[in-house]
Amino acid sequence: MNISLEQAEKAIVAAKAKSIELGVKMNISIVDGGANLVAFARMDGAWLGSLDISLKKAKTARFFDMNTGIIGTLSQPGGSLYNIEHSNGGLITFPGGVPIKNAAGEIIGAIGVSGDSVENDHTVAEAGALAI
Amino acid sequence: MNISLEQAEKAIVAAKAKSIELGVKMNISIVDGGANLVAFARMDGAWLGSLDISLKKAKTARFFDMNTGIIGTLSQPGGSLYNIEHSNGGLITFPGGVPIKNAAGEIIGAIGVSGDSVENDHTVAEAGALAI
Amino acid sequence: MNISLEQAEKAIVAAKAKSIELGVKMNISIVDGGANLVAFARMDGAWLGSLDISLKKAKTARFFDMNTGIIGTLSQPGGSLYNIEHSNGGLITFPGGVPIKNAAGEIIGAIGVSGDSVENDHTVAEAGALAI
Amino acid sequence: MNISLEQAEKAIVAAKAKSIELGVKMNISIVDGGANLVAFARMDGAWLGSLDISLKKAKTARFFDMNTGIIGTLSQPGGSLYNIEHSNGGLITFPGGVPIKNAAGEIIGAIGVSGDSVENDHTVAEAGALAI
C-alpha cells in the first residue's frame, strides 16, 4: 500500500491550515512507502534551509517507521545509535517527521515538516498525518 | 520577484489537468527565482526516476532562463556547450523545463516535467507555465 | 530584494579592512537571497580549508535568516536541533555567518567569514554586513 | 608562485570592464595554483547556472594548464580524452577557462568565465588573464 497523490495533497492542505493557525511558515514534504517524494510545498517566506530538512525528516520517519524525534534520543553521544545521521545521505533526527498510516493502520508513507520550533514542526506534521 | 506558493500550486493544477488530458503520468517540479523547490507533485504510477529529472529540468530552466531543450541542442557532441550537463550537480537538457514569467514578463521561477515522451513533457510544462 | 554585486563588493572591502585591522587572514563569501554565491575573496595566506567553511557559513545564515552561532547553540548534543549540520549538503553552525539587510531591514543575502577564531570571524562578518 | 588576491581582483576588474564593453553579464572565477578559488564575482542578472560553470572552467584550465576549449576538442566521442568531464567532480571543457601567468611566464592560477556565448566567455576570460 502506497500513499496516493490525492492523499498526500490532503495532508499538505491540513498541514498548511495548522501552520496558518499557529502563525508559522513551513516546508512540508510527503514521501511514499519507498521514501520517495510525492508532494511538497514551501510556504511564502519559510526558511530556505528547511526545504532539505523537511525532506530528510519525511525520509527518516519512513526509513525507520517511527517519529524522527525518537531516533534523536538514541543518536546522542553515548547512545545506541550515535551519529546515525551520517547514513542515507543525511538523516534529520529531531522532531517533525511522522509516519503516515492508512485506515487499516498500515504505514503508507511519511510527512516531514520544518520551519519553526521542533514542537511546532511536530504539531504540524501530526496534523498532516492525521488528515489521512 | 519570486513565484508564490499559490502561483506554484496553480501551475501544478494546470500541469496535472493537461497530463490527464494526454493520458500520461508526470512528476512536476516548480522552483523559485533562486532555483529552489517551491512545490512538487508526483502523479500516481509516474516513473520514480522522473522525480529527479523533473527537478533538474526546473532548475536547469531557471539556471539559464530558457527552455531546457534549447540547451540540449547546444550540448551535443561537437556543439558549443558539449557536456554542460556535468555542471551544477547535474543538468537535464532535453525538453520539459520551462521558465515561468509573471504578467510583467519577468522570470519568477521555472517548471520541470518528466514522465513521458519529451514532447509530452514539454507540452505539460508549458501548460503549467502558462497558468500564471 | 536581492543583494547587488556592488553591495557585495562593498561588504568584502569592509571585511578585508577589518581583517587587516585585526591582523588576521580571512576567506569571505557573500550569497544572495537564494543562498547563491555573489562575491568571494580569499586573503593571501588564509587557511585553504576555510574557503568552504566561509561559503557554508554564508549559506547557513541565509538558510535560516540568523547568525550561524545561534544555530550552533541549538545543535549541541541534547539540543533541539542536534546534528542539523547534516542537512543542505553540510551546514556550519559556529559563529562567522551573518545575514545582510538593506536599509528597509529586509534580508537580501548573507556573509560568511572563516580564517581565525570564531570571535574574530564573527567580528569581521559583522563589519561586512554593516557596510551595506 | 601563486596568484595574490590583489592580482585576482585586478583580473576581475578587467573581466567586468570587458563584459560591460560587450554588453554581457558574467560569472567570473579566479583560482590559484592549487586550483582553489581566490576571488569570484557574479554580475547582476547573470545566469545562475553559470556560477558553477565559471568555477569549473577556472579549475579545468589550471588542472591541465591550458585553455578549456582545447580539452573540449579532445573529449568528443571517438576523441582521445572522451568524457574526461566525469573526472575531478565535473570538468567544463568548452571555451571560457584560461590559465593566468606572471611576468616570468609561470602559471600562477586560472580564470573561468561563463554567462554568454563561449566566444564571449573566452574573450572576457582572456581580458582578465592579460590584466596580470
TrEMBL record, chains A, B, C, D:
Pfam families, A to Z: HbpS-like (PF03928)
InterPro entries: GlcG_carb_metab_protein, PduO/GlcC-like, PduO/GlcC-like_sf
Protein name: Uncharacterized protein GlcG (DUF336 family)
Organism per entry: Arcicella aurantiaca
